[in-house]
Write a structure and sequence with these properties.
The complex is a heterodimer of chains A (227) and B (354). Chain A has 227 residues and is mostly beta strands. Chain A has one domain: Porin (Beta Barrel). Chain A contains 3 helices and 13 strands, in the order αβαβββββββββαβββ. In chain A, β6 and β7 form a beta hairpin. Chain B is built from 3 helices and 31 strands. The longest helix of chain B has 14 residues. Chain B is globular. The chains are: A mainly beta (227), B mainly beta (354). At the A-B interface, β1, β2, β3, α3 and β11 of A face α1, β1, β2 and α3 of B.
Chain lengths: 227, 354
């Protein structure tokens, strides 16, 4: 395996989570959310003005009073836009995420709770193009053709932000994500560029940091541990 | 599940927008392999001669300019000139270049002692005067620079009665005179001539095979032509340290002792050019790439196989075992690891020729 770090991180996360589960005498829950992504770096912002994200997390309260929640979660972030003169082609930058989030209940007022949060994710990125054609009115279907990934890579990202929860059900969260992945150009494209007399670096860091504003639902469950 | 996927995609699509004229791959820094300014050197042009001096400096000549660079063409000097129509091969020796032009009985000599930056062109005054009667073909066959102010020129006349007359002239560039050094009349046709220094020179002759003749007294006397091969091997390369290579496609012979002994290369070797590094180390441009011999030309191994981008590469120049050049037409490559890898310095990419 070229880079054992992600799998090691995942194993460590699972071990920690299993340990906490065995110690648990408290609550579990699920966070489901989605929202708007605004790239903060000029590198990404000149290509995509905004994007969308969705995530699903299984959370576990580990301190008395449910002050600290640990949330292993997964999700994706997607930027899409039309490309070309007639927008007939869609460019997509898709990032799959898996990581661990820590939410700490700092304050509570009536039905509102305020959770500063930090998060670390491992990300898998792919930049590709697609085109939809061949609309069939009888079946109301179209066909979508996708290119291979023009840029791809994987790297860690780091998040910090705040989550406001109302009635232990709805939440609004705002966070800043630092994500500066090292992306690799498609080998066919790279070979073509080299044949045309251009040097291409083996990998390129593209700053994909963003501000994320999301809404979501949080479902809490009681756990009755035997231990 | 499909229904939810649809909503997810709709959410992402609603939240997504961007600049349709800028793509993410545009953020990948792409740099030209060769300096676009080198268009001034190669567009509509061809490389005649390129050499590496003291590893860092590259000098070269094209049909209409001389160039020099000390930083792999990040920056370069260019000296345009107008070459005459050549009637002899271009001959190079270090900083000196010479070629012949003009008519058979009124030939001109074009000489440069500064890598082609400036040229002196003149019709030398022959002493004695050229005999014009009774010959049907005459002219300089080859010129060889032997000093910063001196050239040796082989003037050949062909007559029905006497075959070939080879006359060697010592040409004084500042005085613009050509003085006869020796004259030999026989049935051998010259194939190539090159001098290693002002005293020692070699001449390939054709006469039912390839013969070689040499001089060690500036061409006053020449050795009896000796048969090398029954085929015609037309290429001759000599070094200042007494190495001689005679080759063609196929066939090659090497001498490391001024022609006293000869070594024959394998019959399968097809050499296009040769560069001597030491008495035993020789690089050769073969039809399959760069070859290397460490035993004076007896056995050869391939250092690098040239792909199609090396098409039209016809010459090599090695300053030492590691540092060398390969060039031809509009292409120039440099190696710093004995030919294992090559850096493109000049190439007719689209962005160069547009």
């Amino acid at each position: 395996m070229k880079n054992p770090f992600p799998s090691r991180l995942l194993c460590l996360g699972l071990l920690v989570f299993a340990h906490l589960l065995s110690q648990a005498q408290n609550q579990f829950g699920i966070d489901l959310g989605g929202g708007l992504v605004v790239p903060t770096s000029a590198q990404l912002n000149k290509v995509f003005y905004t994007g969308g994200e969705m995530s699903l997390g299984f959370k576990l309260a580990v301190l008395p009073g449910k002050r600290l929640w640990i949330v292993p979660n997964g999700g994706f972030k997607m930027y899409m836009k039309g490309a070309g003169t007639d927008n007939s082609v869609t460019e997509t930058f898709l990032t799959g995420k898996a990581g661990l989030e820590f939410q700490y209940k700092a304050a509570e007022h009536r039905k509102w709770a305020f959770f500063p949060l930090v998060r670390i994710d491992y990300n898998w990125c792919s930049n590709f193009f697609s085109k939809t054609y061949g609309y069939d009115p009888t079946t109301n279907t179209t066909t979508t053709a996708e290119t291979d990934s023009y840029l791809s890579g994987h790297d860690l990202s780091y998040d910090a932000g705040i989550m406001i929860v109302r009635s232990s059900l709805w939440f609004l969260r705002i966070d800043y994500e630092y994500f500066n992945p090292s992306l690799k150009l498609n080998s066919d494209l790279k070979n073509q560029l080299q044949a045309d007399g251009f040097a291409v670096p083996a990998t390129t860091r593209i700053n994909c940091s963003s501000v994320n504003i999301g809404l979501g639902l949080t479902f809490n469950f009681k756990h009755r541990s035997k231990f | 599940m499909k229904k939810y996927s649809f909503y997810v995609l709709c959410l992402a699509a609603l939240c997504s927008c961007g600049n349709k004229n800028v793509l993410l791959i545009n953020q990948v820094p792409v740099t030209p392999v060769v300096n676009p300014a080198t268009k001034a050197i190669i567009k509509g042009n061809s490389l005649l001669y390129v050499r590496l001096d003291s590893v860092a400096s590259i000098h070269g000549i094209t049909f209409n300019s001389a160039f020099r660079t000390a930083d792999d063409f990040m920056d370069f000097e260019l000296h345009p000139f107008s070459l005459q129509t050549a009637t002899t091969p271009y001959s190079f020796d270090g900083n000196r270049c010479v070629y012949g032009s003009g008519q058979g009985l009124t030939p001109a000599v074009n000489f440069s002692a500064d890598y082609g930056s400036t040229w002196t062109s003149f019709s030398p005054v022959f002493n004695p005067a050229l005999p014009g009667a009774g010959v049907y073909s005459s002219g300089f066959f080859g010129l060889s620079p032997v000093g910063d102010e001196e050239v040796l020129g082989l003037y050949v006349q062909q007559s029905y009665a006497n075959g070939y007359t080879r006359q060697l002239y010592k040409i004084d560039v500042p005085a613009t005179t050509a003085t006869l050094v020796s004259s030999i009349q026989d049935n051998y046709m010259p194939l190539a001539m090159q001098f290693a220094n002002a005293k020692t020179g070699w001449m390939l002759l054709s006469g039912g095979g390839t013969y070689i003749s040499s001089t060690t007294d500036s061409g006053v006397t020449w050795s009896e032509p000796a048969l090398i091969d029954t085929r015609n091997l037309g290429s001759l390369r000599v070094s200042a340290t007494g190495q001689v290579a005679v080759y063609s496609v196929p066939g090659a012979y090497f001498s490391a002792d001024n022609g006293v002994t000869w070594k024959e290369a394998p019959a399968s070797l097809h050499l296009g050019d040769v560069s001597f590094v030491s008495s035993s180390l020789i690089y050769g441009l073969t039809d399959g790439g760069l070859g290397k011999s460490t035993d004076g030309g007896v056995s050869w191994s391939y250092v690098s196989n040239f792909d199609s981008t090396f098409n039209n590469v016809t010459s090599i120049f090695f300053e030492d075992e590691q540092h060398g050049l390969a060039y031809g037409a509009q292409r120039l490559y440099e190696t710093v690891d004995g030919g294992k890898s090559w850096k493109t310095l000049l190439y007719p990419y689209d962005y160069i020729l547009q």
